[in-house]
Structure formats: C-alpha cells, structure tokens
Amino acid sequence: MQTMMKWMAAMAFVGCANLAVAEVAPDALVKQTAEDVLAIVKQDKDIQAGNQSKIFALAEEKILPNFNFDRVSRLVLGKAWNKATPEQKAAFQAEFRTLLLRTYATALSKYRDQTIEYKPFRAQPGDTDVKVKTQILQPGGQPVAVDYSLEKSGDGWKVYDITIEGVSLVTNYRSQFSNEIRQGGLDSLIQKLAAKNQESNK
Predict the structure, then answer these.
(1) Calpha distance 8→123 (Å, rounded)
(2) Residue 100, H or E segment
(3) How far apart are CA 26 and CA 132, in angstroms?
(4) Are 39 and 64 in contact (CB under 8 A)?
(5) How many helices (H) and strands (E) does the chain have?
(6) Helix (H, G, I), strand (E, B), or coil: what is residue 77?
(7) pLDDT tens, 23-59?
C-alpha cells in the first residue's frame, strides 16, 4: 500500500469511546478497541457497502475520541501553534479534526479482511508516554508495521501519533503544513483545509 493508505488502514483499527481508559493498560486498550471496531465493520453490511453516513458516524463515535487533538495539533503546527491566536487554534483544530475524520472514514471503507498482530509490550511502571507496536496482516500482501504513540493524561491513555513502517503521521502532516504556512501563513492553511473539507462534502 502507499503510505497514506497504510495510515488509513492503521487508523481504522484505533477506536471505541466510552471505555474506562484510565483502568486499561495502553496495549490492552489498543487491542480491545481495535477488535471492537473490526467487529462492527464485519457485521455491518451498510458500512461494507460504503454507506458514508454510517462510516462517518462510526469514525466519530469510536475513533476520534481516543486521540489527544490538543497534542496532535501542537506537534503538527510546531512553532506556528505558539504564535497562533486562540481563534486560529480553534479554527485549525476544527478543520484538522474534520480532515482526520474523513481519512478515518475512508480507512473503514477500505477494510478487507485485514487482521492485527500485537507485539510484546514493553514499558516501565509509571511511564506516561509509550508505544504499542503491531502489524497489520493483509491477505496476499506484506505485513505492515504500525506503532501507536500514546500518552496518559487526566482522562486516561490517548493516541497522539501513528507511525507506519517508520513514517510518522504527525511528521508527515507537519511537513505539509509548514510549507503552506511559510508560503501563505496559518490563515491560508486553515482556508485550504476548509476548502478541502467542503469539497469532500459534495
């Protein structure tokens, strides 16, 4: 798969809101939630047929709540985040969240009998920033290495980055966005994200 498609596949396997995440170890959380999402996709014929409203609803309910959007936004924008106004931060997060929602929804629609292999989890007691390593096994294809970076905060473990075969989702977006910010500023980036999201609605 191409890099973005690999990210999409990985994203489809992260999710499930309303768990007592503070009481679940990060590796157990990834496994439990991935299996929950896969079970829903396997059982729902409408999702398998590409029903957009159902796919978006599943991504909104089960996937996005497990991400720390504040940290993702800070990492993706880098220095531009510190210079942004509160209004710019809010506008960027809204558009970036919508962009990721549609990316995750596309991932769910691409699901075709992939399975997940979970690597041994290594962490020290008291760690608040960890990686959960997995592989996506594809029929007829090579395994895809996927690392989930999670941090523990007041409301439990949250994902803040996904690394596919050594390529970070955050780093990839940061490179794209920094180029746009250098050329036209943060407002230009926000406008382009909004336009892209609007185009996706058509």
Answers:
(1) 27
(2) helix 86-109
(3) 7
(4) no
(5) 9, 5
(6) helix
(7) 678 998 888 878 888 888 888 888 888 888 888 888 8
Q: For CA atoms 103, 105, 111, 117, give the dihedral sign.
A: positive
The C-alpha atoms of residue 169 and residue 190 are separated, in whole angstroms, by 19
Structural tokens at position 76? 């993706």
Q: Which tokens is 136 given?
A: 């996506």
In a 10 Å sphere around its CB, with 0-12 CB exposed, 13-18 middle and 19+ buried, how is residue 6 labelled? buried
Contacts of 129 (CB under 8 A, 6+ apart): 149, 150, 151, 152
Residue 114 token pair: 């992939």
Interval 67-91 mean pLDDT: 94
Report the CATH number at residue 126.
Answer: 3.10.450.710
User: Domain total for the chain?
Assistant: 1
Enclosing domain of residue 137: 3-201
Distance in angstroms (rounded) separating the CA atoms of residues 21 and 157: 6
